């Protein structure tokens, strides 16, 4: 089996920088280009309800989840503290996702739009279900009440695998969402194909792809004194 690549760049710093850039980018898009965000249902704010969805989903499933995946390598202190940070970040991410899912469902209801008819919506719902099950299984097995040592050891490789898989799915869902929204706005003449907003959305999608690659690289690459967290350790 080939060894994981050794990283010669400050990958953790780059992940954090790009994660912040992605979160700031989607927030800038919602406020600057799409008129802001709202959770109320008055006539003036109906379109702004939708904007809550991409902002919270990207911040939760991509930015916060990426930080959570790397918590064992980036957080100083005991393994218990690292585990707590990992669980807490993903719990907060899940909370944001619930609000984001509610916002888009509410938007569809308000605009009389069918639910769950696009590939993006299927990917998103699958991602949220897997993410929730992954968190619940991890909490039950690795935190409270906690499984046996052999049970934790046997589950850990699968827990890591599905963590990476769900993150890749979150990136794919976010990129497909940007594409879907961009195509819809272009088809209804809201924006031009080569407008500043369209190019910004494309750039944000490319940023997410790069961020996803760096997060996965940071996970699989060995780190001094920390690689055992991902290989063979069941604590």
User: Tell me, what is the CATH class?
Assistant: Mainly Alpha
Unreliable sequence segments: 224-235
CATH topology: Four Helix Bundle (Hemerythrin (Met), subunit A)
Please trace the helix and strand order, writing H or E for each element. HHHHHHH
Q: Into which percentage range does the β-strand content fall?
A: under 5%
Mean pLDDT: 92
What class would the helix/strand composition place it in? mainly alpha
Radius of gyration: 19 Å
SS summary, helix count: 7
Number of domains: 1
Helix percentage: over 70%
Q: How many DSSP-defined strands?
A: 0
In summary, what is this structure?
Its cofactor is heme b. This protein has 235 residues and is mostly helical.
Describe the structure.
It is found in: Membrane. It is a multi-pass membrane protein. The chain crosses the membrane at residues 12-31, 52-72, 84-105, 117-136, 156-179, 200-220. One of its GO terms (cellular component) is membrane. It comes from Setaria viridis (Green bristlegrass). This protein has one domain (11-37, 67-219): Up-down Bundle (Four Helix Bundle (Hemerythrin (Met), subunit A)). It is globular, with a radius of gyration of 19 Å. The protein has 7 helices and no strands. By secondary structure, it is mainly alpha-helical. Helix content is 74%, strand content 0%. The protein has helices spanning 11-33, 46-69, 71-74, 79-111, 119-143, 149-187, 196-220.
For the structure shown, list the relevant keywords:
single chain, 235 residues, mainly alpha, Four Helix Bundle (Hemerythrin (Met), subunit A), globular, disordered C terminus, transmembrane, transport, membrane
């Amino acid at each position: 089996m080939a060894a994981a690549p050794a990283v010669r760049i400050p990958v953790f710093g780059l992940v954090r920088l790009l994660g912040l850039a992605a979160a700031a980018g989607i927030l800038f898009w919602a406020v600057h280009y799409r008129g802001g965000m709202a959770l109320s249902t008055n006539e003036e704010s109906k379109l702004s309800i939708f904007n809550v969805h991409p902002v919270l989903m990207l911040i939760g499933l991509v930015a916060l989840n990426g930080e959570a995946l790397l918590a064992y390598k980036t957080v100083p202190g005991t393994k218990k503290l690292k585990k707590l940070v990992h669980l807490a970040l993903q719990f907060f991410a899940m909370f944001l996702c619930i609000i984001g899912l509610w916002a888009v469902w509410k938007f569809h209801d308000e605009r009389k739009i069918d639910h769950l008819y696009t590939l993006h919506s299927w990917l998103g719902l699958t991602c949220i279900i897997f993410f929730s099950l992954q968190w619940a299984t991890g909490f039950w097995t690795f935190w409270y009440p906690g499984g046996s040592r052999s049970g934790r050891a046997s589950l850990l490789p699968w827990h890591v695998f599905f963590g990476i898989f769900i993150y890749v799915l979150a990136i794919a869902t976010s990129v497909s969402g940007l594409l879907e929204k961009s195509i819809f706005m272009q088809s209804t003449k809201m924006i031009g194909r080569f407008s500043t907003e369209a190019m910004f959305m494309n750039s944000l999608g490319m940023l997410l792809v790069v961020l996803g690659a760096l997060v996965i690289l940071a996970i699989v690459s060995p780190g001094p004194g920390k690689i055992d967290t991902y290989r063979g350790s069941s604590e």
